[in-house]
């Protein structure tokens, strides 16, 4: 059985909730990624408090007239972060992403530590054409 660990990108880069969005955008450019998990710097276990995307920075900060050098990653984190265990099946991954209409899904290990992220590109490399079409239909509906 293919698991989340088999299809994820390992070793995701964190950004602290206290870091500004201009730095987040720079880090995204350096890493060539479109999203960063946000960590709670007050939690010694570095737990994830959310995820921010390049689109969040553009739409919710810059287009809203805010200065990204004065808005933090934590300011954009809303709601409960979604994640999946590394031993979850591909069907569970798809269900989580489809039911919440998300395009990137953090992966955690047994100790609830972030070990990877699954993106649409990862799915495209591991799903059948039929599975991928169903995913796209559900997430973009």
UniProtKB/TrEMBL annotation:
> In its keyword annotation, does this UniProt entry include Heme?
no
The family database entries (SUPFAM superfamilies) matched by this protein are listed as: CBS-domain pair (SSF54631)
**Keyword Transmembrane helix in annotation:** no
The CBS domain, residue ranges? 8-69, 76-134
Q: Which residues form a coiled coil?
A: none
Keywords noted in UniProt: CBS domain
Say which domain of life the source belongs to: Bacteria
Q: InterPro entries this protein is in? A: CBS_dom (IPR000644), CBS_dom_sf (IPR046342), Diverse_CBS-Domain (IPR051257)
**Protein name, as recorded:** Hypoxic response protein Hrp1
What is this organism's lineage?
Answer: Bacteria, Bacillati, Actinomycetota, Actinomycetes, Kitasatosporales
Instruction: Tell me the name of the encoding gene.
Output: hrp1
């Amino acid at each position: 059985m293919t698991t989340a660990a088999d299809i994820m990108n390992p070793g995701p880069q964190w950004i602290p909730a206290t870091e500004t969005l201009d730095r987040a955008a720079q880090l995204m450019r350096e890493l060539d990624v479109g999203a960063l998990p946000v960590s709670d710097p007050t939690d010694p276990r570095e737990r994830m408090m959310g995820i921010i995307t390049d689109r969040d920075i553009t739409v919710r900060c810059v287009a809203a007239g805010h200065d990204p050098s004065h808005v933090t990653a934590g300011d954009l984190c809303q709601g409960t972060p979604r994640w999946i265990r590394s031993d979850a099946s591909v069907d569970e991954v798809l269900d989580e992403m489809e039911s919440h209409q998300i395009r990137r899904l953090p992966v955690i290990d047994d100790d609830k530590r972030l070990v990877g992220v699954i993106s649409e590109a990862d799915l495209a490399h591991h799903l059948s054409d039929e599975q991928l079409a169903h995913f796209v239909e559900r997430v973009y509906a």
